[in-house]
Specification:
The chain contains 13 helices and no strands. By secondary structure, it is mainly α. This is Putative PurR-regulated permease PerM.
């Protein structure tokens, strides 16, 4: 037992620096598995795995590096824009007076100038720090694609190994695997699709209205759209406020209308894409997303809810199987 613990700790130390890329490779292998099954019917396993890995490099790795570079520049530009934005103080004060409120906008801005400046500086520094880690990201992507190839080639062997190692009966294993499969599909494929729909729609609105840093705002919308009851709302509402404060009421009205439509669409698109049978509890999603980011990095946005949901499903299945065994023993 001591030897197993030592080996496990040493293996963990080796894997830990790139665990998020390894986990991401597992997610991609799961997503691409249906395509892999079709290719295996025509080609050998290694050839099929190589084709999909090359596809992942073209579709995921190369765009990711480009996106990171562009996102870094736009995030810094966005921070500078927020810090230098000029507010139409007279317009805002007049509008507030019509509502019976008297506010000195200049005094409010002066009182909070340091807070605004600190926030902008933190955003810029964090973005630049991410850009400086680009060499490590490239190494991680190499590891990701290699692990992806191995999982696509030998994934069935890994699943058989897990099946053999689980100390539970075959019927319970089948139920557990089936429920975990529905959970992963809901969290990985369903949530990403639902968030992507909102992000692309709102990004199109930002582009049509002439916003700068559209890519940054679109990615921010996608990340927040993974959270229930949050989504695009947190992005487009400040945008409406910004347009109002700068006196662009016409554009603010357009943004308000489209923002409401996009946020309301979440109540229809998410159930449509995910389905109702494997939907995740809102608390599990929220805790899983933030805890997943801390534990796994950016990929934790997706894998965090799967880990928590998987723990819940596993506990339910194992306890139900134990209760059935106890009932059968009492009956006999």
């Amino acid at each position: 037992m001591t030897l197993l613990v030592i080996v496990g700790v040493l293996a963990g130390l080796v894997v830990l620096p790139y665990v998020q890329y390894i986990v991401f490779a597992g997610v991609l292998a799961y997503v691409f598995w249906p395509l892999r099954e079709r290719l295996v019917a025509r080609f050998r396993r290694d050839v099929s795995a190589l084709i999909i890995t090359l596809l992942a490099i073209v579709v995921v790795s190369v765009p990711f590096i480009y996106l990171l570079r562009e996102l870094t520049g736009q995030a810094v530009s966005f921070a500078e824009t927020v810090g230098e934005a000029s507010v139409d103080q007279e317009y805002v004060e007049t509008a507030l007076r019509e509502w019976g409120l008297t506010v000195d906008i200049a005094a409010v801005v002066d009182e909070n100038q340091q807070l605004i400046t600190d926030g902008v500086d933190r955003l810029a520094n964090q973005t630049l720090s991410t850009a400086q880690s680009l060499p490590g990201i490239v190494i991680g992507l190499v590891i990701l694609n290699f692990v992806l190839f191995v999982l696509l080639r030998d994934g069935q062997l890994f699943i058989r190994w897990v099946w053999t190692m689980l100390p539970i009966r075959g019927s319970t294993k089948r139920e557990l695997f089936a429920r975990l499969d529905r959970l992963m599909w809901a969290s990985i494929v369903g949530n990403i699709a639902a968030g992507g729909i909102q992000a692309v729609a709102l990004g199109g609105v930002f582009w049509l209205l002439g916003f700068d840093n559209v890519l940054f705002l679109t990615v921010l919308t996608f990340v927040l759209a993974l959270l229930p009851l949050v989504g695009a709302f947190v992005v487009w509402v400040p945008a409406v406020g910004y347009l109002v404060l700068t006196g662009q009421t016409g554009l603010a009205s357009v943004m308000l209308v489209f923002g409401l439509l996009i946020s309301a669409s979440d109540f229809y698109t998410r159930p449509l894409v995910i389905g109702h049978s494997a939907g995740l509890n809102s608390a599990i999603i929220v805790v899983g997303v933030f805890g997943g980011i801390v534990a796994f990095g950016p990929i934790g946005l997706v894998i965090g809810p799967v880990v928590l949901g998987g723990a819940k499903v596993t506990t339910e299945v194992v306890i139900a199987a134990r209760n059935r065994d106890r009932g059968n023993r009492r009956a006999s």
